[in-house]
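Researcher: Here's the sequence for the chain we discussed earlier.
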Amino acid sequence: MRMRPTLSWTPTEDLPPGTTDPAPVTDALSAGGVLVLSGAGISTESGIPDYRGEGGSLGRHTPMTYQDFTASAQARRRYWARSHLGWRTFGRARPNAGHRAVAAFEREGLLSGVITQNVDGLHQSAGSEDVVELHGSLARVVCLSCGAVSSRRELAERLEEANAGFEPVAAGINPDGDADLSDEQVGDFRVMACVVCDGILKPDVVFFGESVPAQRVEQCRQKVREATSLLVLGSSLTVMSGLRFVRQAAQAGTPVLIVNRDPTRGDQHALTRVELPLGAALTTVADHLGMSIDD
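Model: Thanks. This is the structure I predict for it:
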């Protein structure tokens, strides 16, 4: 029986309580060399829901797994129909105060870099430059046969042309850009093949059940080794792809600070967890540092 990826986490021990005082975050940033690790929670204020917070999409939606995508043509049809519709909304999302604050911290030389678990590109849109996209980007498409990488915008145009009149109303949008559609709404949606070799196209993102490329993981581990502190923003740290960097920092004695409304799987390793909305928390920190956040 194939194991499903970890989608949820329930605390099994007493975790340190959170605080509403962002002063430790201000102090860490003042010292410089902070490595940011961001999750879906930083994008909720841009209209992209997270997986596990209040109203999170996992309550109604099981993300596509790599195994299902590669094994079934019908699964790929369902994915691309839903993702194509979701892309229309997803592509219109704009950076919020949290993204802009992170970009401002970078401009002031307070960060050593950003690792994001998100695939929305909003950190870069806000002006951040040193960003490692741990789980890839929805803005790119890769062929599973020849490895050719192409633009998602280009694929969207091909899908629009091949599926004229495809205008279903989605029940919701998810952090991976996938819209909630029924099989009836998906219908006979036409999937596009690679223009180079006619192979299977996949968004250039790491699906649940798929491994992050080893070279990318090592790049992130090196950033953790070089950081003065690790600041986690909007991640429950449920999946190991992000949690491993928190554990690495803690084992090395590097302070870990978390800003997240709910408890996380990394709280036991953290110096503090700030229970505030990210936009408000980071705006307050920027104010205390005497910085302005570009709108």
